[in-house]
Amino acid sequence: MLSVHLRMLRQRTSISVDEQRAIEALVSEVRNVRADQAVIRAGETLTFSLLLLDGWTARTKDLASGDRQISELHISGDFVDLHGFMLKHLDHDLRAFTPCRLAVVPHERLERMLEKHPRLARIYWFLTNIDAAIHREWLLSLGQRSALSHMAHLFCEMCVRFDQIGMVEDGAYAFPLTQREVAECLGLTTVHANRMVQELRRRGLIELANRRVKILDHPRLEALAEFDPRYLYFDRREF
Hints:
Strand order of the largest sheet: 2-6-4-5
Shape: globular
Structural class: alpha+beta
Number of helices: 9
CATH superfamily of the largest domain: Jelly Rolls
Number of domains: 2
Radius of gyration: 18 Å
Distance between the termini: 25 Å
Helix content: 40-55%
CATH architecture of the largest domain: Sandwich
């Protein structure tokens, strides 16, 4: 059930059989969530965290006007609100963008595991630090990158993250976001975001069809985005 999450961890470090069993014992149940549904709302008291088994979720914040900003995307294998273990409520919503399967991890189980396995505590602390690094990179994109460079950067980031869990085939990966959701990631209007997609297509950098994106020229797309994957910390290490 946690095969994708375990693969993601093992891309970065070793996980023993005993540690794997401890991780698998965290899950109390699996929940299915419909697309476009709030999984967690800002301010809700949390007694559990969620691990995404299948699908896409996003961290979002809304204004009274209805305008929304997406601050991070989560894919299969991600612990989508591990920081809720300490905070006990979120300052943002967690929304499902596709039908999702989510493993429920009660905080009491997580606490027991972290006390018994201090190395796993360091590993999961490391993952929350990567979330913070992604937020900083997205903030840089929102504030300083051009709209075209920002969109190119999003496609590059998701490709690298999907490749880590073995879900890139011939340069292509799932990309089920609507035009509005892409615009909310980039801080653009839907019309402007669509123009940027068309420009990337015109330059022969991507194909986008049937809810999949294919990167046609990685070096040129990465150069346009000024993409440096070091903020994702994929280098292997021991904890």
